[in-house]
Amino acid sequence: RIVYVNGNYVPEPDAKISVFDRGFLFADGVYEVTSVIDGKLVDFAGHAARLRRSLAELKMEMPCSQEELLSIHRELIVRNEVTEGLVYLQVTRGVADRDFVFPSAATPPTLILFTQSKAVVDNPLADRGARIVSIEDIRWGRRDIKTVQLLYPSMAKMIAREKGADDAWLVEDGVVTEGTSNNAYIVTQDGTIVTRDLSSHILAGITRAAVLKCARDLQMKVEERPFTIAEAQAAREAFTTSATGFVCPVIEIDGAAVGDGQPGPVARRLRQAYVEESRKSAI
Ligand code: PMP
Question: PROSITE patterns, alphabetically (predicted)?
Answer without folding.
Answer: AA_TRANSFER_CLASS_4 (PS00770)
